[in-house]
């Protein structure tokens, strides 16, 4: 079994796939290294033989996780590294090492699945958009705060924006002007995301008149999916790229 980890800024997405990669055996989302090991301990008949991971955390945090994987599971994790090119796909950053590895892997995954020009939007702690031309050139992208950061900033920097998490979930049943703080903030922030995605779509249309594929990923992808009819929501997009960047044989 192969353990795959996508270590984001707030959560670790993990999954266990079969040796040949054809089956997804276990999967989960956790908020800490220790929660990860608890989840793995609870997976019945888990036998991890190999491991690959991508991390946008600090080198020290990533190294600490690699050490614990070695100690607790006896596996040597292979970590995705920056590259200026993988296959046809070329990194468009001035300094390719600066492009977030989750973005780079999502770009690799999208181009592999789409086989033509692509727009990739990843909606997590941060929201990112990346453009790839039909011949595999990454043209750069955009970064902005994601939903959790927008909410937090509003409550941190105001006195009276306060509401209950449960109320917040109910507020997103529709997007009419809010009639409570929870509705006003939750819907306002979702509309920011949707506006961002709509703008990326306009840019992609202008850049790629021959047509393009849109990929949405990240925990909040469902909140914007209907902004882009025809978009593919690929929850595992980073893992698709991880398998390309870190082949294990
Ligand atoms: N099962 C889940 N656990 C945690 N968050 C979830 C879950 N399902 C949806 N979400 C949403 O996903 C968002 C977090 O996204 P995601 O897990 O893609 O990113 P992250 O690890 O926080 O950040 P990033 O990978 O961008 O650094 C939260 O805003 C939350 O609302
Ligand atoms: C933008 C995030 C936080 C998204 O997870 C990550 O890709 C990252 O830390 N990137 C480094 C900065 C950059 O991509 O330019
Ligand atoms: K991410």
TrEMBL record:
Q: Give one GO biological process term.
A: coenzyme A biosynthetic process
Subcellular location(s) of the protein: Cytoplasm
The principal localisation class reads cytoplasm
Q: Residues that bind substrate, according to the entry?
A: 93, 100-103, 181
Q: Does the keyword ATP-binding apply?
A: yes
Tell me which SUPFAM superfamilies the record gives. Actin-like ATPase domain (SSF53067)
Q: Does the record's keyword annotation contain NADP?
A: no
Which residues carry out catalysis? Answer: 102 (proton acceptor)
Question: Which Pfam families does the record cross-reference, listed alphabetically?
Answer: Pan_kinase (PF03309)
Reaction catalysed by this enzyme: (R)-pantothenate + ATP = (R)-4'-phosphopantothenate + ADP + H(+)
User: What detail does the entry give on cofactor binding?
Assistant: A monovalent cation. Ammonium or potassium.
Positions that bind K(+):
122
GO cellular component terms? cytoplasm
In terms of PANTHER family, this protein maps to: TYPE III PANTOTHENATE KINASE (PTHR34265)
Family named by the database record: Belongs to the type III pantothenate kinase family.
Q: What does it do?
A: Catalyzes the phosphorylation of pantothenate (Pan), the first step in CoA biosynthesis.
- Subunit and partners: Homodimer.
Q: What is this protein's name?
A: Type III pantothenate kinase
Species: Ectopseudomonas guguanensis
């Amino acid at each position: 079994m192969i353990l795959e980890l996508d270590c984001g800024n707030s959560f670790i997405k993990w999954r266990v796939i079969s040796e040949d990669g054809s089956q997804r055996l276990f999967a989960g989302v956790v908020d800490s290294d220790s929660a990860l090991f608890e989840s793995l301990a609870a997976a019945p008949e888990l036998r991890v033989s190999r491991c690959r991971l991508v991390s946008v955390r600090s080198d020290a945090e990533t190294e600490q996780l690699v050490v614990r994987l070695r100690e607790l599971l006896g596996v040597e994790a292979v970590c995705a590294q920056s590259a200026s090119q993988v296959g046809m796909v070329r990194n468009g950053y001035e300094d390719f090492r600066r492009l977030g590895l989750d973005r780079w892997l999502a770009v690799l995954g999208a181009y592999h699945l789409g086989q033509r020009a692509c727009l990739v939007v990843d909606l997590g702690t941060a929201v990112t958009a990346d453009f790839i031309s039909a011949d595999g050139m990454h043209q750069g992208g955009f970064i902005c705060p994601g939903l959790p950061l927008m909410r937090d900033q509003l409550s941190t920097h105001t006195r009276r924006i306060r509401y209950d998490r449960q109320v917040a979930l109910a507020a997103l049943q529709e997007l009419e002007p809010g009639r409570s703080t929870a509705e006003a903030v939750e819907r306002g922030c979702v509309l920011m995301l949707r506006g961002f995605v709509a703008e990326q779509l306009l840019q992609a249309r202008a850049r790629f008149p021959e047509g393009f594929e849109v990929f949405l990923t990240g925990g909040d992808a469902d909140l914007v999916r209907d902004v882009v009819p025809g978009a593919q929501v690929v929850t595992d997009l980073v893992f698709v790229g991880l398998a390309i960047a870190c082949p294990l044989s």
